[in-house]
Amino acid sequence: MSIKILGISGTPVKNGNCDKLVQVALRAAEEIEDVETEFVTLAGKKIAVCEHCQHCINNRTYCRIQDDAQAIWEQIKACDGVIIGAPTWLRTVAPPILMLLSRCRYQMFIGHDFRNTVAGAITLGWFGRGMDIATLEIMHVASRFMMIPVAEGMATSSAVALGKRAEYMENGVLDDRMGVKQVKNVGYRVAEVTRLIKHATEAGAGVPPEFQVTTSGATVKRKPKS
User: Are strands 92-93 and 81-89 parallel, antiparallel or unpaired?
Assistant: First the structure.
């Protein structure tokens, strides 16, 4: 059974620490047989902030703003598992990933596009400050889409706040050996649970729609067969 895992790097810095860390997790997942991975970074992408205009809710359709977000949403919808990475800024998760997902109100409340997608959370930051808060925030957001959060990992990108990076961390986040190990474990765990969930789904092990609750407490409504 083949599975597909998407890695999203929610950073404005191309080829920076966050991109590298998400790719570490994906390479770990690829060590497992029949695991295909895909990587996307938000660096260089145009992703607008949600205007809370209610277009998506009132018209029961996707966000009206057209930018780079649509393609990434389709990638999430098409994958079996997702590894979400984002830097820790101000002791919480950096804005880019939240801007991407906050415009997914249709997917959350109406379309249920990301339901039962297995999710892992990765973050990095200076001196480890606030990284536990950031990973919990990513996992909490994933759970609101009825994803299945299963793992988290974090690594230190620098031990100094200003100026030149410490000599013992000249390679940034990749020099945090314990952090890299955590992140690899995220890749392994997401791959493991994704395979289990896909096998169960294909075997028909789910529950009837009337028991499939949504984030609002309602049940999933299925379109009648034509």
Answer: antiparallel
